[in-house]
Each structure stands twice: as structure tokens, then as C-alpha cells.
Amino acid sequence: MTRRLPSLNGLRAFEAAGRHGSFTAAARELNVTQTAVSRLVRLLEDRLGFALFRRHASALELTAQGQALLAGLTDAFDSIARLTESVEAMRGGPVLTVGVGPTLAVSWLIPRLATFYRSHPAIEVRVATGGATRPVRDDWTCTIRRDTDALPGYTAERLFPSIVVPVCTPELASTLRSPDDLRNATLIVVSNMPNEWPHWFEAARLRSPPHPAGEASFESNAMAMQAALDGVGVAIAQFPYVSDALATGRLVAPFPIIAHTRDSWFLEYRPVRREDPALLAFREWLHQEADRERQVETELVNRGSMGAIRARTKVRKR
Questions:
Q1: pTM of the model
Q2: Rounded mean pLDDT of 91-106?
Q3: Which CATH number fits domain 8-88: 3.30.450.20, 1.10.10.10, 1.25.40.10, 3.40.50.300?
Q4: For 277, left (φ over 0), alpha (ψ -120 to 50), or beta?
């Protein structure tokens, strides 16, 4: 039997847009442009011969046909995801794929994997960049994400809080005596995270936020952290991104002030994977590493001494 199916990309674009009520939100989930989502939905409507949305200035409204199609598509895609996960769980070798944002992968997860392999040499860990900024893929065993809530249909286990801290080279830190001195510094900003500096200014109880001498903007946290390492200026960083650089003294936190955000870092996975032996081993190890990370964060708050943090973190020669 030959199936006459519309474009699967069009169906995915419509399902995401219908679920979110927005082409823009659907584009973020699918990691494509808003224009691409709109075009795929328009092509699907042309193929079906009727409109799926009433397009308003600030929202999308499903037509009767759109409502009927959305309900069936969401169930169908959920069924495909569950079927795929069930089949993958039948594979013989212990393989674990973890989805994680590129900066957390390079700065925090990968440097710690050697300790996992020493305890679990038979488990193959595959690191897929994504998680924090891209849709979670069905072929991932789990993901490490920063968010306020768990993904729908996922089990979430809190690893550590989301906090931000200013960091810079030791040479630059020597010129900073108080947060007010940031007025004379170049502040490094991640363009899609413009609120992290203001959030820290509030935690530092500055009467008025500094107007820095300069500002350097980068598109990703990885670029911003490299700029800080190169002495470009003072960056505001998620603590896991810089904890190892602080431990080795390549970066310092010039002020013992951190700012908690509304988010947390989570390990998330589908409930069907709960008894996966590779995931069980990985989550136990990951929670141990998260406990150490929280201890280092506490050291920063309580002592305000990077020397103490370096001494404590270097224990990871284990």
C-alpha cells in the first residue's frame, strides 16, 4: 500500500506552531527560522487545500480543521517517540547519549568524563551538543538543561542552582577593588542573554548600574568565556562554565558576590528510560559531580577567596 503523506517537515512545523500558538516559538523549538516555519505551514495548507490557522497580529488561532489535525499529530509524534525509545532500549551494548549545550559540554562535562570512564569502562558515552538551546532529540538518553521547569513528558532531577558571577583574568582583577570599579572596565555580554549583568548588579546592591567604559558582545557563552580568558574584559558567567578556570587560576572572581537566577540545572530523561543501566550509572555519577559543584559555589559565597576554591577543586585529580 502506498501512503500519500504530506511533507513530514510541514507536519512538524504545523504541530509545533499549533502547540505553541506561535511561529516564533515553533522556530525556537525546531532550531530553524520563523520564516521557514511559516513557509512550511503555508505549503502544507496549499497541499491540503484549506487554512490551518487564522493569522492575527500577535497570535495564531487554529481553524476547525487545524484543531482536528493538531490533536492527531501530537498523539502520532508522541507515539513515534515512545516507540523509538522502546526499540533503542533493546540494544545490547551499554551506550548513553547525553544532550548538552556546547559551553557546558566543553567547560564542565567533558573534563569530568574521565572519572566516569574509570568507574564504568564498558559504557560508551556520546555527547551531543544541544539540550539547553536546541530541541531535545528522541535518540538522546538524557539531557542536561538549564530551565525553570522540566520538559513535558520528562523526569527532571535538579543538579545545582543557576548562578552567575563576574570573572576576569588575575591581571584585570587587580584593578578592581569594588563593583563600582566596573565603570572603568570593558564588560563582556552574551547577546542573547542581556539580563545577566543587570541581575548581578541587583544582587550586588549597586545604587545605579555601572556605565562601563566599553562593552564587548558575543553570540555565545563559549565565545564570551574565551574573551574573558584572553583579557578582553570582565564576563558574567554561569558558574559551571568557569569553575575549572577558577580552580586553576586562569580566571578569578574579583568580587565574592553571586546572583541566583530563576533557573536550575536539571538532568532530564523520559520515564521509559528510568531503568536503563547506562543511565542509572551516569545519573549516580552526575549527582556526585553536582554535589562537588555546589560545594565550590558555597566556597565562593562564604569565603570570597579564589585561593580556597582552587585548593578545594584541585581534589579532582581522582
A1: 0.64
A2: 83
A3: 1.10.10.10
A4: alpha
